[in-house]
Write a structure and sequence with these properties.
Elements lengths: L1 E10 L3 H19 L1 E7 L4 H7 L5 H8 L3 E6 L14 H12 L3 E7 L12 H4 L3 E7 L11 E2 L4 E2 L6 H16 L4 E6 L5 H14 L6 E6 H10 L6 E4 L1 H10 L1 H4 L8 E3 L7 E2 L18 H14 L3 H16 L17 H20 L1
Parallel strand pairs: 1-2, 1-3, 3-12, 5-10, 8-9, 8-10
Antiparallel strand pairs: 4-5, 4-11, 6-7, 11-12
Helix pairs in contact: 1-11, 1-13, 6-7, 11-12, 12-13
C-alpha cells in the first residue's frame, strides 16, 4: 500500500469547514485505491497567530517541508486587518509560498454544463469554456523590495528577473502542449518596463515550443475578453498580481469562486501547495453553507500533480461532476427556487460517489 504524508493547513474562516470535506474525500480515495494518507493538521494565518503569535509557526514550517504535499484552506481574519505586517495572516501565506518555492500557480477554469445557468453570463458565451491560468507566484509586487509606508505615502516595488519569467513560462508552454496548444501571455508592456522584459522573455521561450501558438494581450484587454469571449483562451500566462485578479474574475464564468481549485508547483521541498482559490469568507464561517467543491477539486489536483496518482484524481473529478449532474447545490450555485444543501452534505454526496464508483467496478 502506498503511503503519502499530507500536511493539512485548514487556516481561517471557512477554511476548516471546506478542508474537513476535502479530507473526507481524500480518505475515500484512500479506501478505494488502497492508498494510505498520513495527514496531520497545523495552524497557519490567523490560526497561527492565535496558536504561536506567528502566521507561519515554526511547527508548520517544519511539517510542510517534510510532507509529500500541502493542503491549505484559506487565510484571513478581519480582526487582524490593523495588525503589524508580521502578524497579518497574508504574511504567513506569502512566506509559505516562498518557503516551498512554488513559483507556478495553476488555476483551471472549466464550466460544468449543469451550471450554465449559475453564471451571470449568457449560456452561449460559456459552452466549452476550459482554460488554465498559470500565475507566477513568488515574485512581482507582492514580494518586491523596497516596500514601505508612511502616513502620507507608500511604496511597493514591481520586479522580475528573466530567470523568474522563464521558469513559469515553461510551465505554461508544457501545459499548453497537452491542451489546445495556445498560450496567451498577459502583461502591460505599453507602460511597464517589467512587462516589456516579460514579453521579450516569453517570446524567446516560445521558440522552444514550435507546436504551441503564442499571443500577447494587455491585461485590460484580457480582462474584457474573459467576460466577452472566454472560449478563445486556452492557457493564460501572467505575473503575480495580474494572475490574482484575472483568476478571481474567471470565477464569474463558472458561477462561484467556491468552485475553483489551484495547484502551486515549483522546485522546493514537498510535492506542492494545493488550495482552493476562494478566501476565508468570514461572513460565511460557521454557518455550514460554504461550497466545499473548490477544496475537493483541489484534492484532485493534489493527487494529479503532487502525488502523481492520476486514476485517483480522475475519480474525484468524476464524483464532483456526478454530484452536480444529480442536482446537488450549495447556496452560491443554486438558481432561484432550487433546493440547496450545506457544506457537509455536499462533501457526503461526493464521498458516496467516489466509493460508489469503486463498487460499480467490482460488480
Amino acid at each position: 500500500m502506498k503511503t503519502f504524508s499530507i500536511a493539512v493547513l485548514p487556516g481561517d474562516g471557512i477554511g476548516p469547514e471546506v478542508i474537513a470535506q476535502a479530507v473526507r474525500v481524500l480518505e475515500a480515495v484512500g479506501e478505494r485505491f488502497e492508498i494510505h494518507f498520513r495527514s496531520e493538521t497545523f495552524p497557519v494565518g490567523a490560526a497561527g497567530v492565535a496558536a504561536a503569535n506567528d502566521p507561519l509557526p515554526a511547527e508548520t514550517r517544519a511539517a510542510v517541508t517534510g510532507s509529500d504535499a500541502v493542503l491549505l484552506g484559506a487565510v484571513g481574519d478581519p480582526a487582524l486587518d490593523g495588525a503589524p505586517r508580521e502578524l497579518r495572516p497574508e504574511t504567513g501565506l506569502l512566506a509559505l509560498r516562498k518557503l516551498l518555492n512554488v513559483y507556478a500557480n495553476l488555476r483551471p477554469v472549466a464550466v460544468h454544463p449543469a451550471l450554465l445557468g449559475s453564471s451571470p453570463l449568457k449560456p452561449e458565451r460559456l459552452r466549452g469554456v476550459d482554460l488554465l491560468v498559470v500565475r507566477e507566484l513568488t515574485g512581482g509586487l507582492y514580494y518586491g523590495e523596497p516596500r514601505r509606508r508612511s502616513a502620507t505615502s507608500a511604496t511597493n516595488t514591481l520586479a522580475y528577473t528573466t530567470a523568474e519569467i522563464e521558469r513559469v513560462a515553461r510551465v505554461a508552454f508544457e501545459a499548453a502542449r497537452g491542451r489546445r496548444r495556445l498560450v496567451t501571455s498577459v502583461d502591460k508592456a505599453n507602460v511597464l518596463e517589467v512587462s516589456q522584459l516579460w514579453r521579450e522573455t516569453v517570446t524567446r521561450v516560445a521558440r522552444d515550443y514550435p507546436t504551441v501558438r503564442l499571443e500577447h494581450a494587455y491585461v485590460d484587454t484580457a480582462a474584457m475578453r474573459l467576460i466577452s469571449d472566454p472560449g478563445t483562451f486556452d492557457v493564460v500566462l501572467t505575473e503575480n498580481m495580474f494572475g490574482d485578479i484575472l483568476s478571481d474574475e474567471a470565477a464569474v464564468l463558472v458561477g462561484s469562486l467556491g468552485l475553483l481549485p489551484s495547484a502551486s508547483l515549483g522546485s522546493g521541498p514537498g510535492g506542492g501547495l494545493f488550495e482552493p482559490v476562494h478566501g476565508s469568507a468570514p461572513p460565511l464561517a460557521g454557518r455550514g453553507i460554504a461550497n466545499p467543491i473548490g477544496a475537493i477539486a483541489t484534492v484532485a489536483l493534489l493527487l494529479r500533480y503532487g502525488l502523481k496518482v492520476t486514476e485517483a484524481a480522475d475519480a474525484v473529478d468524476a464524483a464532483i461532476a456526478g454530484a452536480l449532474d444529480a442536482g446537488a447545490r450549495t447556496p452560491d450555485i443554486a438558481r432561484p427556487g432550487e433546493p440547496t444543501i450545506g457544506t457537509a452534505d455536499m462533501g457526503e454526496r461526493i464521498v458516496e460517489l467516489v466509493l460508489a464508483e469503486a463498487l460499480e467496478g467490482l460488480s
